[in-house]
Amino acid sequence: MSFDNAYEAITEQNDARWAFGTGFDSPLSGVDSELPEGVDRADLATYSLMLADDALVVSHRLQQWCTHAPELEEEVALANIALDLLGQARMLYTRAGQAEGGDRAEDDYAYFRTESEFGNVRLAELDQPDFAVLVATLLVFTTWRLALLQRMTGSRDPVLAAIAAKGIKEVTYHRDYAAQWVVRLGDGTDYSRQRMRDALEAVWPYVDELFATHPVERRMAEAGVGADPASLRDECAAVFGTVLESATLEVPQVSPRAGVAGRAGRHGVHTESMGYLIAELQAVARAHPEATW
Amino acid sequence: MVTTREHARAVAARVTDPELPMLTLADLGVLRDVTVTADGVVVTITPTYSGCPALETMRDDLVSELRAAGYRDVTVRTALHPPWSSDWISEDGRRKLAEAGIAPPGPAPAHGQGPIPLTLHTPRSQVPSDVCCPWCGSAETAELSRFGATACRALRTCSTCAEPFEHVKEI
């Protein structure tokens, strides 16, 4: 159908929905939802949620830059990256729901879980007080996720493999965007260089956590479904080294930020920022549960 | 009424993309398959990008167009694999894009087995480029931003005719 004007679109007879909010069709609608043989359903659900939470939380942080980015082009770029990650999150939440076998769908996971039920790495949720912290976070996150998704293209779960194959095309663009900005700021003026260096120092304590293997990640890697994050360390270090060298910067020498008794983001133990983020993300859906518009 | 696969396909193929309305879903390469069953018609489409919000609209538009053509039971399925590539845009589609002032994509990068290489050059550093201006044909064009009004488009500018234009990204 096509419409000559917006009014015609919203008054269309056969469609009760006039804008897209919640109540989307499943992004995996029509995709074969069969589970691979011999794979633990609960583990697959938890693993899909971890990868979905990483994408959703980073996407939300990027969305917060709308109307705050330094230039319109950057704002559009960040919104595009956020949209790609949101799309990945939606498919992964849907896959988690299929693995779990209950009636939970994407909105239930995104809007109606508590902070401690989110399994994203803490790097994803960090406050981004300036543009340099944003690009530092994005460089680390996209480098790590690209390496992870690339290994998952061979997953024994055909749905995760397909989500990963699609995702690597997108995240390759995201990583180039972040890397180019790190170089531009690092190899820029004395002032931009100092700000970029400060940003890397603020973010780097959360890098180590990305390569710590949670028991579910270990079991999923052993089952040929996921990738062991510890195996991504060297590849990521090489990318960080290349980018920072071009930016005339060095890898920060900072201690990793410890978790609580060895537990961090993957275990649902988050930083103070997470509570505020979740509150903003979920406020409307919790105030008007089941609403569609 | 004719309910052959060719007819159903022809109906589905004339539905246009909501964000690039000069292209049909067939031109864009997102229409994967159309089959006619005893109960109706099953259309398979694929998203261009994971978060492409146009997918919902495409689904609605396909159902509405096929129903209007007499197919009562219409199912739209999503295929994720293999992932959509800009290489799937038809020759006809590329011509229509260029006529609308949008530079069509070049060949998509092939992702091999090893780590995916970084691109560190800044967008403006490659002039002349592989992307020609759809208005004047000049290769003296530079990327302004790799991310445009939709996920699939980048912003470029031409230094010969000084016009800005969009470019469908290689993916």
Automatic annotation (TrEMBL), chain A:
Which InterPro entries does the UniProt record give? Answer: Aromatic_CoA_ox/epox, Ferritin-like, Ferritin-like_SF, PaaA_PaaC, PaaC
**What SUPFAM superfamilies does this protein's entry cite?**
Ferritin-like
| Pfam families in the cross-refs | PaaA_PaaC
- UniProt-listed PANTHER family: 1,2-PHENYLACETYL-COA EPOXIDASE, SUBUNIT C, PHENYLACETIC ACID DEGRADATION PROTEIN PAA
Q: Which domain of life is it from?
A: Bacteria
Concerning Gene3D superfamilies, the annotation shows:
1.20.1260.10
Cellular component terms (Gene Ontology): cytosol
Put simply, this protein is called Phenylacetate-CoA oxygenase subunit PaaC
Enumerate the transmembrane spans. none
GO annotation, biological process: phenylacetate catabolic process
UniProtKB/TrEMBL annotation, chain B:
Among the Pfam families in the record, one is Zn_ribbon_PaaD
Q: Which domain of life is it from?
A: Bacteria
Which InterPro entries does UniProt cross-reference here?
Fe-S_Maturation_MIP18, FSCA_dom_sf, MIP18-like, PaaD-like, Zn_ribbon_PaaD
Q: What is this protein called?
A: Phenylacetate-CoA oxygenase subunit PaaJ
Give every MIP18 family-like domain span: 13-76
PANTHER family in alphabetical order? 1,2-PHENYLACETYL-COA EPOXIDASE, SUBUNIT D-RELATED (PTHR42831:SF3), FE-S PROTEIN MATURATION AUXILIARY FACTOR YITW (PTHR42831)
The PaaD zinc beta ribbon domain sits at 126-169
